[in-house]
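HUMAN: Mind sharing a backbone?

ASSISTANT:
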Amino acid sequence: MGRPTVRDDLRALEGYHSPQLDVTVRLNTNEAPAAPPVAFAEAVAAAATEIEWHRYPDRGATELRRRIAELHSVDGVTVDPSQVFVANGSNEVLQTVLLTFAGPGRTVATFEPTYALHQHITRLVGAVGVEGQRNDDFTLDADEIRSVVAEHRPSVTFLCSPNNPTGMVDPEVLVDVALDAVDAVDGLLVVDEAYGQFNPTSAIGRIADDVPLVVSRTYSKTWAMAGARLGYLIGPAWLIAELDKVVLPYHLDAMKQAAGLAALDFVDEMDERVAAIVEERGRVSARLTELGCHVWPSGSNFILFRPPSGDGAAVWQGLVDRSVLVRNTASWPGLDGCLRVTIGTAADNTVFLDALADVLGSGD
């Protein structure tokens, strides 16, 4: 009996994976360093007893959207629940955007190096991906944005700020440059703010009905809920209505909605954890510099660095041998010799730094 064939454009596609090794200290996937507060888990457990498990969940995630809108209605910004879209992690959010506005015969633009899933999902939906380039120091020029958008006329353009994997924050003026460029070609700008809480600026305040802009966020990082897979997007109400047409019915289960609502009762605790991570980020960055590494400035919960030897792959293996796992980005385009470390607990960060010093000192 024969086998069905994969789509021609997907036959050579590799999946997106992060190594999952048995190590003592795992700092490779930008997860939160600690679980949510115990009171959060208790609130979720209590909510589970009230779910009508024999009924479909609220298809519109009405209350969750309302609370997320309320969360972002600060500092003179007003977000309406009709401007919020919620899905299974920010990756499903981005996939739904591309299913709606990209697809066969359309183009999606990114500026590399950046989050690999942007181009990966682009290929999955059958669109054509084009890649603008960041400078050698990973900054992005306004002229590069204008040039790429004018030449390729993408239906969707991505900016990731703070950028993954570099951690760098794009100047706010670049959002305005990109908006002008995509507006001229009837395109859409997606600003990926998965790490937005670690940075004081946001593009959410620019969202309006007549502005071709959406901003995506996630619960995975600052809310310490990577295991829940919950993300959301804020954009014009008319655009959110289009996404709701495309997403599968009842895609967001009742348990996940309950967890998302419970988390929003712990904003103060989240802010404290973000502040602690930012403080640790400064300590780790300073020590990496002392060890002779090239360190890029970070506005996220991770740091990109290049060991003094320039041999990131060897240093990565040396760390694994010492039961510490970071992300090996040495083979990624533009990241020759680089590694990315997630900011963990103070204790885990110290173990990592001591192990790195040992690797560098031993010549591994």
Q: What stands out?
A: The CA atoms of residues 155 and 187 lie 4 Å apart. The first helix runs from residue 38 to 48.
